[in-house]
Inverse folding.
């Protein structure tokens, strides 16, 4: 196993919007950005965009619906680089079902993807994390103000916020911290809720000193 000199950011559930913006923000700080998407064909253009800007980046495929694959992919990144300094968990699932239509299997499937697979991801990353490493999670106002038209999303976001607090309590003993940045607004192409300023807020949340650390940081634009 080789150890990459640069710190490593792994984005699970990367995309051309927020995931890429977060990767770019961390790359500006000297991180190697690893972008994990559903297929390599999806990941390669994202990594290529960063490489074209002069940053170090690579893309990998991951099936976020398969906990075993999540574990294998995260472990593979750790073994390849010898470290995972920041694990960014970005996935969620929008299902247009109100509470009178949503079934229990649908709810559980959505929560498993939007919150549950954070568990195997962190468990696989832990051997490659050291003092100062961070777990970063994309939160949402849906945790507090759910949209009835997509009832499972609010449950996903409330669940992952709660899970982050538990993870932070366990990881803190090793000076590894977890934080959910709750985006209290609708994502947009421009303005304070566009990817770039949100990515800046995520960097700020991770770059905080551990003194006075909180596992929940609201972003209000």
């Amino acid at each position: 196993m080789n150890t990459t000199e640069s710190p490593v950011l792994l984005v699970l559930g990367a995309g051309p919007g927020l995931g890429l913006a977060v990767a770019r923000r961390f790359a500006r700080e000297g991180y190697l950005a690893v972008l994990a998407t559903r297929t390599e064909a999806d990941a390669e253009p994202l990594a290529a965009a960063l490489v074209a800007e002069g940053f170090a980046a690579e893309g990998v495929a991951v099936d976020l619906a398969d906990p075993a694959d999540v574990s294998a992919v995260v472990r593979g990144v750790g073994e390849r680089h010898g470290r995972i300094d920041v694990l960014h968990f970005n996935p969620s699932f929008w299902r247009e079902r109100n509470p009178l239509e949503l079934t229990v299997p649908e709810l559980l499937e959505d929560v498993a993807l939007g919150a549950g697979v954070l568990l195997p991801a962190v468990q696989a990353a832990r051997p490659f994390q050291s003092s100062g490493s961070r777990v970063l999670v994309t939160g949402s106002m849906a945790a507090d103000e759910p949209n009835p038209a997509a009832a499972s999303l609010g449950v996903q976001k409330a669940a992952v916020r709660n899970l982050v607090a538990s993870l932070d309590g366990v990881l803190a003993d090793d000076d590894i911290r977890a934080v959910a940045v709750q985006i209290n607004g609708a994502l947009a192409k421009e303005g304070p809720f566009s990817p770039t300023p949100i990515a800046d807020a995520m960097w700020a949340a991770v770059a905080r000193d551990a003194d006075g650390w909180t596992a929940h940081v609201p972003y209000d634009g």
